[in-house]
Amino acid sequence: MSITRRQLLILLPAAAVAWKSILAGTPEASPNYNMTEHWWGMLVDITKCIGCGSCVRACQMENQVPDGYFRTWVERYHVSDYDIENPKVDSPDGGKNGFPPATASDGKNFFVPKMCNHCADSPCTQVCPVGATFVSPDGVVLVDQKYCLGCRYCVQACPYGCRFVDPKKKTAQKCTLCYHRITKGLTTACCENCPTGARQLADLKNPNDPIHEFLKTHSVQVLKPYLATRSKLFYNGLDGSVR
Amino acid sequence: MKAFKDAGHLFRLASVFLVGGVLFLAFRGVLVPRSFGQYGHYRADAIKETAALPISYAGHQVCEGCHADVLEVKSKGVHKQVACEACHGPLATHADDPASVQPAKLDTAVLCVRCHEANLAKPKNFPQVVSAEHSGGAPCETCHQPHSPAIVAVAGGNQ
Predict the structure, then answer these.
(1) Residue A132 belongs to what domain range?
(2) Within this chain, do residues B123 and B159 fall inside the same structural domain, yes or no?
(3) Mean pLDDT in chain B?
(4) Which residues of B touch A121 (CB under 8 A)?
């Protein structure tokens, strides 16, 4: 079989098109989702948190988080009236099974749910040597599980302690803001299962999202604002003693 | 052409650089994933891969599609904000195949106290009890029905 120059010139562009479709990879899982229309964050209302640990359990089940590691966890603070600079913090098993009764009645006690702050200027993505972690166009900090080397730079860089290296996969793991759920129109596993509504997923690009009204009418803070990470985890009722 | 008398080694050097450059571009073309750099210094396909992960919690909207009777009871009580799977656990498998995957029976002695056991750190307006003193060891559902926990005077008037 011989191919003339004319046939070769016709075949080449066709082969190029075919090759491109081979390289294109898997089709998008949620075809109706447009990344440019969203900018995700979360609202945590500390005044509503009861420390039941539903969010921690839900996160572990939804994302197969290994035992002893946490993508979200709940801390209990005890702040004495006489030493507000040095709160006592406990979080038995990440608060997964609730908390034992608080004993100290002086000062104040409260719960603080913690997770990835999905910073718009995140320190963790800046230190990755291989481009395996990044802020997605819709504002979620993700890890490329196929690209991550497990070097732990990001684990050290996160000022909020929200990353760990999976003991089996040896790659960096963190909260994905349940990206596989929010792209399908669901809320995150932790927000879905919070019985008091202390956690709420927020889409800052959606003008009808209740987050806008909430931010207007409440004194809302982020953790460690002096680090200028542009965190998108907004806390209502955050005490100054919280680290 | 005396100036170019010994130019041969320059051409050899240039060809080494040329071959090196071509090899570099060829390896780069093969090794760097196609979607790398589409949105930034990362592989854009990683976004799709994360989005394609399986779901464990179906979401209360899915539950309510079939269990309208429970929704009716729940919507009248103080537990109307509590999502089904917060107590019943992840049941996306049950939603996909209701016949073969049955949710486990729940133990109120474990579930209720998770939220309602008294703790100083809980908000003061949240209903809390010291379970040992409150019920004298009787299971919670003796008096309270979890879907609508307020105690109604008429017997059988509440579910």
Answers:
(1) 35-236
(2) yes
(3) 90
(4) none
Chain A environment of B82 (Cβ under 8 Å): 195
Interface of B with A in 108-147 (CB under 8 A): 113-115, 117-123, 126
Name every chain B residue with its beta carbon within 8 A of the beta carbon of A187: 59
CA distance B13 to chain A (A): 33
Average pLDDT, chain A: 91
In-domain check, residue A93: yes
Residue B42 token pair: 């990362």
- The two tokens of residue A53 are 């640990």
ipTM of the complex: 0.84
Q: Please, are residues B51 and A30 in contact by the beta-carbon 8 Å criterion?
A: yes
pLDDT band at B137 (very low <50, low <70, confident <90, very high): confident
Based on the structure, what is the number of domains in chain A?
1
Answer for the pair B123, A50: CB distance below 8 angstroms, yes or no.
yes
- Rounded distance between C-alpha atoms, residue B6 and residue B8, angstroms: 5
> Do B61 and B124 reside in the same domain of the chain?
no
Which of A62, A135, A154, A236 should one mutate to test binding to chain B, selecting the residue with the greatest count of B CBs within 10 A? A62
Q: What are the residues whose beta carbons fall under 8 Å from the beta carbon of B19, sequence distance 6 or more?
A: none
Residue A139 lies in a domain: yes
Where in the sequence is the domain holding B150, given as residue range(s)? 105-159
B97 lies in the same domain as B126: no
Put simply, the answer to whether B55 touches A180 (Cβ < 8 Å) is yes
A180 closest CB neighbour out of B43, B50, B115: B50
Structure-token pair, residue A83: 């030493």
- Residue B4 counted as domain residue: no
In a domain, A170, yes or no: yes
Those residues whose C-beta lies under 8 Å from the C-beta of residue A26, and which sit 6 or more positions away, are B45, B48, B49, B52
Does the pLDDT value for residue A75 go beyond 50? yes
pLDDT value at position B158? 43
Q: What is the mean pLDDT of residues A92-103?
A: 91
Pairwise CB contact (< 8 Å): A137 & B39: yes
Q: The CATH number of the domain where A143 resides is what?
A: 3.30.70.20
Least confident of A74-83, B14-23, B52-61, B144-153: B144-153
Does residue A51 form part of some domain? yes
| pLDDT confidence bin for A121, thresholds 50/70/90 | very high
Q: Which residue has the higher pLDDT, A1 or A140?
A: A140
> CA A25: distance to chain centroid?
26
Out of A132, A146, A192, whose CB is closest to B83?
Answer: A192
Residue A28 has pLDDT above 50, yes or no: no
Rounded CA gap, B112 and A58, in Å?
Answer: 17
Contact B81 A195 (CB under 8 A): yes
A241/B contact by beta carbon, under 8 A: no
